[in-house]
Write a sequence for this structure.
């Protein structure tokens, strides 16, 4: 008896007898003759590991984040330090330690809340506010001359707190300025950023 031979089905070739088109790799977009590869998505088997920031950073993010002008920052820190000086005089009999310790976080908040365009005003307004708030703490008497002498003496005695708060405000303002400059540079060198127009010189008049 004859046995029928079974043949394996052969893949059909496309009509026209041409070669098969190369397969496009997954995740690629073909436009004309160029192939642009799309950024690969994370594999389902490898989930992304998100790093949790430190607790100090989380606490700072929960704080309000207003943006004050240079004048607004000066008025803010002066009003706060005057209120602190009055409370220190009423509750703690003008303790320089309490006044100096509270001056440091107020200086830091002033440098954090001032807007980027007015960062230079933070280290300037902070010592002025220290002098305004130290008037109730100085405890001067005997008219304008006595008050002025008491103020100068208090500023000389508490110069450490004054320099410390000014240094804190200056450091925070400097860090913010450097970060803003780096952000602008990265935005300018980004591939999708618009090119700056080239200014042509004006034609000379004969």
């Amino acid at each position: 008896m004859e046995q029928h031979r079974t043949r394996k089905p052969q893949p059909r070739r496309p009509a026209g007898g041409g070669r098969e088109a190369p397969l496009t790799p997954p995740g690629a977009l073909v436009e004309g003759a160029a192939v642009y590869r799309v950024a690969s998505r994370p594999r389902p088997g490898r989930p992304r590991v998100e790093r949790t920031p430190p607790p100090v950073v989380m606490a700072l993010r929960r704080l309000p984040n207003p943006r004050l002008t240079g004048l607004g920052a000066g008025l803010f820190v002066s009003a706060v330090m005057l209120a602190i000086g009055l409370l220190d005089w009423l509750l703690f009999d003008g303790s320089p330690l309490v006044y100096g310790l509270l001056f440091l976080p107020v200086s830091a908040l002033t440098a954090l809340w001032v807007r980027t365009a007015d960062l230079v005003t933070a280290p300037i307004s902070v010592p002025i506010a220290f002098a305004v708030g130290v008037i109730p703490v100085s405890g001067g008497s005997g008219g304008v001359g006595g008050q002025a002498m008491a103020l100068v003496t208090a500023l000389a005695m508490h110069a450490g707190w004054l320099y410390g708060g000014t240094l804190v405000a200056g450091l925070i303002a400097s860090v913010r300025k450097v970060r803003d400059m780096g952000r602008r540079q990265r935005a300018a060198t980004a591939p999708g950023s618009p090119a700056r127009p080239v200014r042509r010189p004006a034609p000379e008049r004969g």
